[in-house]
Design goal:
alpha/beta; six-stranded parallel β-sheet; single chain; eight-stranded mixed β-sheet
Length: 411
């Protein structure tokens, strides 16, 4: 029913504790959460700990080259595109993983359950029942999807029996954990309001400095047609939770300034909406850029003179955009369009790496662009953001915080 790949010996032959990471889907090529998990797992292994991933087979590249040295317990499964099929697949993962955890309960000291599918936290509760209370269970909450969709009025089942049942399952799993980890103080408050009574620790999202560093690539700029213009860049996924009206509005206000180009590099329905808006308004200074290979992501991010990050005010506390830290990693200033209570806004302010604006403030964004164009502040904002990133949001910093959380009492 499952198989396990052999994990290479840890450096120096030391195995301080054995970590099991449970998440159904780990598509490292397309999923930022999966990539963060892989980076954390590899960092933990580099510290001498044995790490095993418990996931569905067929939901990540199977050659193992990216995950050298990490063990895997694979639940056999096939991909499905249907909503009903996904529900069945999630249930299958929970049931099969429960069997794996029960039979292999002596092979891990700590279990980290990551927020999907609904009920995955119950694997930690099961582990404590079958292996004893010394097993440490940590729950990682990266997104409060159902809360967000209700806040954005995309679903109205908040009072339904099924919605209440899901909340109770999530809270039961969270409250059975030794600790719940989330991405920001805003999310910590949301979890507490929702009924999570376990200790909730904040470990913000990170970026790996070796993967993202400033690269001034003139060839890429020429290929993308950026020239020597100051690029106001939105990069990454853009959906219903990412308002871009100020981005479009600022482009309209600066349409006659030949020094500025507004560019979007990413996917999502909001990107296509902005493309249509720009075409309808005749905004020649607003473009959607083609995708670049992974090897050129750092250069693409470095091409932005200012990075725009956005989050709907109503979604505050349901997620924290990691785009903020990617911009800081390449030493570029950030304009965060969202609530000042969001962790991204708190970090931009604390680090002095940019400006926090209301998502509708087109004039404020345009004024900030003019300020960066007409003075030396852009480099100063970028430098301060990079200093904050290296001190607070780099993988090695986050990894050490995670180490304190994951280490079992007997290790």
């Amino acid at each position: 029913m499952w198989r396990r790949s052999r994990a290479a010996a840890a450096p120096g032959g030391k195995r301080r504790f054995r970590l099991l990471i449970a998440r159904a889907e780990l598509d490292y090529d397309r999923d930022a959460v999966a990539r963060a998990l892989l980076e954390l797992a590899q960092w933990m292994r580099g510290q001498g700990h044995e790490v095993t991933l418990l996931r569905l087979a067929g939901h990540a590249p199977e050659d193992g080259t990216e995950r050298a040295g990490l063990g895997e317990w694979l639940i056999p499964a096939r991909r499905t595109a249907s909503h009903r099929g996904q529900k069945v697949l999630n249930l299958w993962y929970l049931l099969a993983s429960g069997v794996v955890v029960t039979l292999r309960r002596r092979r891990f000291d700590t279990i980290l359950t990551v927020d999907t599918p609904t009920g995955v936290e119950l694997l930690g509760l099961l582990a404590k029942r079958v292996a004893g209370p010394d097993v440490r269970h940590v729950t990682w909450v990266l997104d409060l999807w159902a809360d967000q969709e209700r806040a954005l009025e995309l679903r109205s089942d908040g009072g339904s029996l099924l919605a209440r049942a899901r909340t109770r399952v999530d809270n039961l799993g969270g409250n059975s954990s030794d600790v719940v980890v989330t991405l920001g103080s805003c999310m910590r408050e949301a979890l507490i309001r929702r009924g999570v009574s376990s200790s909730v620790e904040v470990i913000p999202m990170w970026q790996k400095k070796e993967r993202l560093a400033r690269v001034d690539d003139g060839a890429l700029r020429r290929r993308l047609g950026l020239g020597d213009r100051f690029v106001v860049l939105y990069s990454g996924h853009a959906t219903h939770r990412h308002p871009l009206q100020a981005f479009v509005g600022a482009a309209e206000l600066l349409r006659d300034d030949p020094r500025v180009l507004f560019a979007l590099a990413g996917t999502g329905d909001r990107i296509e909406q902005v493309r249509r808006q720009a075409a309808a308004a005749g905004l020649a200074n607003l473009r959607v850029l083609p995708r670049v290979p992974e090897s050129e992501v750092a250069a693409l991010l470095s091409s932005g003179g200012l990075h725009v990050v956005s989050l709907d005010l109503r979604a505050t506390g349901t997620c924290v955009p990691s785009k903020t830290y990617a911009a800081m990693a390449v030493a570029r200033p950030v304009a965060f369009l969202g609530s000042p209570e969001c962790q991204s806004a708190l970090d931009v302010t604390a680090g002095g790496g940019g400006l926090v604006l209301d998502p509708d403030d087109s004039e404020g964004l345009a004024a900030f662009v003019r300020k960066l164009l007409d003075g030396p502040e852009a480099e100063a904002y970028g430098r301060r953001g990079l200093e904050f990133f290296l001190a607070e949001r780099e993988l090695d910093i986050a990894g050490r915080r995670w180490l304190d959380v994951l280490r079992p009492a007997k290790a």
